[in-house]
Structures
1.
Amino acid sequence: MAIDPLAIDTARIPAGNTPQRARFRTPLSEVPWVKFGLIAIAVAFLALMLVLPLAAVFAEAFRRGVEPFLAALVEPDALSAVRLTLFVAAISVPANLLFGLVASWAIAKFQFKGKSFLITLIDLPFSVSPVISGLVYILLFGSYGFLGPWLIANGYQIVFAVPGIVLATIFVTFPFVARQLIPLMEQQGTTEEEAALSLGAGGLQTFWSVTLPNVKWALLYGVLLCNARAMGEFGAVSVVSGHIRGKTNTMPLHVEILYNEYNFVAAFAVATLLALLALVTLVLKSALEWRYGGELAAHGRH
Amino acid sequence: MTFGQIALPRPAPSVLPGFGLTMGLTLTWLSLIILIPLAGVFITSAGLGWAEFWRLASDARTVAALKLSFGTALIAAGLNAVFGLLVAWVLVRYSFPGKRLLDAAIDLPFALPTAVAGLAFTALYAPNGWLGSFLAPLGLKVAFTPLGIVVALVFIGLPFVVRTVQPVLADFDKELEEASATLGATRFQTVRRIVLPALMPPLLTGFALAFARGVGEYGSVIFIAGNIPYVSEIAPLLIVIRLEEFNYAGATAVAAIMLVISFALLFVINLLQAWNRRRIGLAG
């Protein structure tokens, strides 16, 4: 076989590959049938697990056409569920944003004993079942709880009311912002802040004009994920909500009620709003990763 | 330094201001929102007394629900370990059209509200659904059986495995594979003996994370499970049912068992991640 190997190779290089990678068939790659087999399995699996369910939500919502779909969205109970979901997110997301900034300043910019234990405590809500996240507030504020009888006697209704929903949502979304900021701020170190302080800036000024700009994209990223979870949380909110239509029903709970009443088109119609929220979140998240990947996380992406 | 008197962590010397204030706020907020409420579960359980707690915990329905939750979560995490590894491999090592889109879609289970996922899978796998109508003639029932729970948990856990394996595989030093190939190993031997062992720590971490998440999962499961006591009733649902019966003791007992096992899992995950970091440190 008197063929110049280089000639074959250049013909084989797919557009965009760097030429120095080109060899005879590199021993670092699988034979083509294995490669395409693996790609086919992965694509089929993801289509089955991710794409199909999403398609099903939209298909079921429009099963009887556009009109019943729209009717389900403008119905008063649906509108009040949307309003409550937005209200809960509007409190719990900023609360976690503030906590995330405060906690990551204390944890990432200083060295002290027990740091990793403290981070584990902040992460706790990730490993607690959402149902238990709701239960803990019932044990605390319910009518048989530790503080409940006194609070209820004084006219403060926490659980089975909006405050309980807000608390449960803050609980489940607690780690999102802090988790995103701590590793990044640790990696960035304290030299820039020290420089600002030595030039006469105050503490708050240093934070505002040095630390915050350095983490702004990671902060936005954390807020985005926090918001998606806050608006979509089901288990924890379901336990503390009391399910009063028009009053303590969030969108995910409204979906469940409609579904249990066999009002499938309406259930899926409201579900499409939540699915759209997820899609918008994914698009923004990917946009942030593609544009500001290096500024988002300390190592790798997560 | 006034905060030195309270039991606040003491930092190494630093010129940056605000440690006392921010650490104080962090610990206060953490205690109020997370720690004190969680402690309530254990205080309530302790108040039951050991005999009563044991009676509630060993109740046949509770045991069945716990077995189901842990069993299905284990199977789903195992499936995710296999398919998640495969997906991570394909996304890191190969290029094909639509790859970026697929990569972005991996996080869908993080972004999609669990109730919506549950609804979607029920619609797909119900006997008259898109997939269920194909499976029904084969005698395979997915919706309203434990199999349906596994499907929902595979969805929920998938990103955990893919997103822990992906960065490690991307950083994997190709020279090791080259060395293996020059020493005469076949491609299969190289992957099995060189690449896979390096992926074990992230793979196990992802498996444990998916498992931990699956055990507590509620929203996506209750729609597809059918919720038949002793058959397809998961532990978180049993907590909800006990609460609706105003049986707070019963609910708390199940919650305490789940919490203890979750914390044990969390401890294992932390050990795994420490191992993970050491392995990456060595390779890099």
Note: Confidence is low (pLDDT under 50) at residues 1-5 of chain B.
2.
Amino acid sequence: MNNHESLRQLVHDARAPLNRISMNAELVKLVLENDMPKEKALAALDKIIANCQQCSEQLQQISDTHTSD
Amino acid sequence: MLNVLLVDDDSEFSDVVCHIVEFLGHNINTAANLAEAEQWFENNTFDHVFLDFMLPDGSGLHLLEHLKKIGQSPRVTLISGHPSVKGKLAEMCEANVGHLVKPLQREDIERVLNPKKANTKKKSAPSIKRHFGTLIGESDVMHKLYTMIERVAATSANVMLMGESGAGKEVVAQAIHNATACDGPLVATNCGAFSKELIGSELFGHEKGAFTGAVARKEGVFEQAAGGTLFLDEVTEMPIDMQPNLLRVLENKRVTRVGGTKEQAVNCRVISATNRTLDDLAQNNVIREDIYFRLAVFPIDIPALRERKEDIPLLANAFLEQLNEENGTDFKWQASQLKELESHDWPGNVRELRHAIHRAFIMSDPKGSAITLPESLESPFSRVNKETQTSQVMAGQTIEEVEKELIHATLDKVQGNKTIAAQMLGISTKTLYNRLNAYGGIGEYK
């Protein structure tokens, strides 16, 4: 039960970076579609990369927690 | 352009959403928790709120409660991380609350911000004031009515409402009940619908076994309305030989259930209603005089709709708004249509107006926003009334004039069909043609 709850929490936390990735990708699309300054797109892409990293770490944590049991 | 508030503790996510929402042409502010969000609402109003379900200082639902408390109703989109929460949210949320599941996409945001047009209109809805929560109208006659309602609400006097059919007697009864500081309910009953045998049981209740079929004890309407208001509609349609029963309750303020022995105190205000005129009451012996004076301690005349034509646009807007809200449509009146409604006489009063609008609403193309009024607003009843009104013969008219008027009126009624008109007039078709020719040709009745 407890185990299940902690898994839910970890999955929930891992969705946060995915959410940021999704919105930053949308922003990049907007920038490209509307010929806006490319710095904006680059900054968003950097955030996407950083959040991919973070998401990966969180997935690793889930894996660690639930294989060590 | 909308005013949007984003409530989310993820600042990076908030930043990006701000960019996107601003790009979509809207104003956006952010709050990182419930406390900040509530602060924003202290001095601002928002059209739309994006609300994270889980916030550091509580659930997003708390903000919904807070908004209700302070009387603000922006459109709200709850954002949750669990797809499973979505179903639960759908169950408990009201019409103006939507939900999205993370991760979000731009289309999601665009979609929830765009049907917004309907919502800005909803905000203008309260511009039509409902006096006492029910009555619509700003004409002088209605303001006089409001004053009377206020005065009588402060007392416990019995009220008799008089007005034409469809003028809103039950609505006025509700208004008086709303304006009265009482704890009990409003109980409405139609005296014309009682059967002679059951009227006593309806009004006063009965004990178990009082008569065949009385399988359980039943409370009468006087008891049901304890501490509140009893609305006796069409009181003059109650058989006159049953009226003494009513008189006893009104005088003694006590009822005894049919088949019972114990008297019970009655403490409700009685509002009665009739669509008969005072003359009618006096001449036709439909109500006993003693009952009349008990019921009509404070008589109120409800004006007919044609006496307050300036209220028609207000009423028309209110009814259409209600229909739009119920059906998720976006119909609007054109000024010329409101004028057309205003020029009609509405012998069936507000009820007829409301039905005409409903009919027009059903006939209108649901894809458009223009409402289609029927070619003729007349109902079968309005035609009858009009005829009786216009077919008055004045002294001094020549027989020829009256005859001409009669022939034209008959032809109008049968859409110019001369064979039927001649039959109705009791003359031959040939005579009808001769008459029309004598009046200067068949003209419009070709």
Note: Chain A is about 90% helix and 0% strand.
